[in-house]
């Protein structure tokens, strides 16, 4: 697709602001004006539209019709050296290598710019005087930052995005060892020091107190990060995974503009890579999208247990990502920098976790209520939503929309599913994340087990039981399409005949709208937690 105006998205392909790196005065090694004039010339491409040139500190980009050519500038920085033709060629090759798997339709290859007696050519058999990355141009208005500015991304797009990121992380080379954690600490300390040096720009912010809190949080997370570094959770990732570096092309989210100039910068914990996008969504007021992204990513992860345990480091990851954006944007966009810094502070403020269990017969709307509540509970981006239907499909290693046979719903299988849900909930609570467990919870022993786990974890527990007229349940089940639940009308009839035993959970009328139910639960939680806090204060 062709952009209708200068593509800011393509200008971001060569943004200098990577991982907090500040532009510095380069040492210019060579005059490239002949090459740039050649690439600005309409005759080079045979197109009628004007060629648009975008310059950054590290590259010159030429937009010609549906084509894009990007030339590395002959410069040398402390963090990036393009000072020789060989180094520029290597950087072009690296850019294709790190991006082609995620965006094969955009990154077309490396093209030589040659000179012979007739002048300069794209390709050709003359002497190679420069190299260019060849890309296909796309609609700049379809980057996710633009879409998020218009409204929520929505469940369908966010689910596709989680799948794309998970696939990218699955392909990424594993980089085990402690060094990436040490690099992250140095980056964190450098960021804190630079923010402190710029404190005059943020007179209303206690930057030193924030810096101390962030360093302390990293100290607590460091043993976990080192462990994850030994267990394959550190990989050569995208490195710059924010909304502006993802484009919606033919209905699919395409990751582009991965960091190519320094593998060290792009090597990180996969949750730190994902954390940039979660932070970006939260800071833009799209916390519901961020929550769904995280939950979908975790639910599809092969290493689900390890990733849930890794949530203990998520506040540090989110805060550091926001702090880096604050220091980078401060010279140009002070108001935006202040918003990033305020977000960074919020991410490391302690938030006590809570455990919710939502039960009821099939069709009562447990999953809808859980998804509505999750973004509003606990630390960013909200609660971990654990769903028995999805966990059962994981147990049998099938895609969640593939129906399971009746044998998969035997009592002993259900006991295994509930045991796994409780174990995962315990791991998330230990990591500091709020949790919602979404299952029928028809049996007394199931409800007792989850309440006991909350007591063991010493977190507040709230159980909600959804009820609705039988005819409404039957209709909802019949209307389901492509859902993880295998419940049928016959299943609802069977459930309705079973006794649920003694129930001390709060009963809710699930025949009402989702908005009304969500508001009622939030009101009850506020009241309930206040009561618990008062009781704790009195007992102390």
What keyword list fits this structure?
single chain, 540 residues, alpha+beta, Aminoglycoside 3'-phosphotransferase, Chain: A, domain 2, Rossmann fold, 3 domains, six-stranded antiparallel β-sheet, disordered N terminus, disordered C terminus
Number of domains: 3
CATH architecture of the largest domain: Alpha-Beta Complex
Instruction: State the helicity in percent bands.
Output: 40-55%
Q: Regarding quaternary structure, how should these chains be classified?
A: single chain
E-strand count: 18
Please identify the structural class as seen in this structure.
alpha+beta
Strand order of the largest sheet: 2-3-4-9-7-8
Rounded to an integer, what's the Rg over CA atoms? 26 Å
Mean pLDDT: 90
CATH superfamily (homologous) name of the largest domain? Aminoglycoside phosphotransferase (APH), C-terminal lobe
Low-pLDDT regions: 1-25, 535-540
**Biggest sheet architecture:** 6 strands, antiparallel
By CATH reckoning, the class of the largest domain would read Alpha Beta
Per the principal axes of the C-alpha atoms, what is the gross shape? elongated
């Amino acid at each position: 697709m062709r952009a209708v105006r200068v593509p800011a998205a393509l200008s971001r392909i060569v943004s200098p602001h990577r991982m907090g790196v500040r532009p510095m005065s380069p040492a210019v090694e060579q005059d490239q004006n002949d090459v740039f004039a050649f690439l600005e010339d309409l005759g080079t491409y045979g197109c009628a539209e004007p060629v648009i040139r975008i310059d950054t500190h590290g590259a010159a980009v030429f937009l010609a019709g549906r084509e894009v050519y990007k030339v590395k500038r002959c410069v040398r920085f402390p963090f990036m050296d393009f000072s020789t033709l060989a180094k520029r060629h290597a950087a072009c090759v690296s850019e294709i290598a790190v991006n082609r798997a995620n965006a094969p339709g955009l990154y077309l290859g490396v093209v030589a710019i040659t000179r012979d007696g007739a002048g300069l050519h794209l390709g050709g058999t003359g002497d190679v005087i420069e190299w260019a990355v060849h890309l296909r141009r796309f609609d700049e208005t379809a980057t996710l930052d633009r879409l998020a500015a218009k409204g929520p991304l929505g469940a369908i797009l966010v689910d596709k995005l989680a799948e794309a990121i998970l696939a990218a992380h699955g392909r990424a080379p594993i980089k085990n060892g402690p060094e990436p954690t040490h690099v992250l600490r140095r980056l964190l300390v450098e960021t804190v020091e630079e923010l402190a040096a710029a404190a005059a720009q943020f007179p209303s912010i206690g930057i030193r107190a924030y810096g101390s809190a962030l360093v302390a949080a990293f100290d607590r997370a460091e043993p976990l990060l080192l462990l994850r570094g030994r267990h394959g959770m550190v990989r050569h990732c995208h490195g710059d995974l924010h909304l502006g570096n993802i484009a919606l092309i033919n209905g699919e989210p395409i990751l582009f503009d991965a960091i190519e100039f320094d593998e060290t910068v792009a090597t990180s914990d996969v949750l730190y890579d994902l954390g940039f996008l979660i932070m970006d969504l939260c800071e833009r007021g799209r916390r519901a999208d961020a929550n769904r992204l995280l939950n979908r990513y975790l639910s599809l992860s092969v290493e689900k247990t390890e990733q849930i345990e890794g949530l203990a480091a998520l506040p540090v990851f989110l805060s550091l990502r926001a702090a880096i954006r604050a220091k980078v944007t401060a010279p140009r966009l002070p108001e935006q920098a202040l918003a990033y810094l305020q977000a960074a502070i919020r991410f490391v403020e302690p938030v006590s976790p809570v455990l919710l269990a939502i039960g009821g017969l099939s069709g009562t709307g447990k999953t809808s209520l859980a998804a509505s509540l999750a973004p509003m509970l606990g630390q960013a981006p909200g609660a971990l939503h654990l769903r028995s239907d999805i966990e059962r499909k994981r147990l049998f290693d099938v895609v969640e929309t593939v129906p399971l046979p009746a044998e998969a719903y035997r009592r002993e299988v259900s006991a295994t599913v509930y045991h796994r849900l409780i174990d995962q909930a315990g791991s998330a609570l230990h990591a500091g994340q709020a949790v919602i467990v979404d299952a029928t919870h028809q049996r007394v022993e199931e409800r007792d087990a989850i309440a006991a786990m909350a007591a063991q974890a010493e977190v507040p527990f709230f159980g909600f039981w959804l009820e609705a007229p039988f005819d409404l349940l039957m209709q909802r089940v019949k209307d389901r399409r492509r859902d993880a639940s295998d419940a049928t009308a016959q299943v609802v009839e069977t459930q309705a005949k079973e006794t649920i035993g003694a129930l001390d959970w709060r009963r809710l009328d699930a025949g009402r709208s989702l908005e009304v139910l969500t508001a009622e639960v939030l009101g009850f939680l506020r009241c309930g937690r206040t009561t618990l806090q008062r009781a704790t204060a009195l007992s102390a």
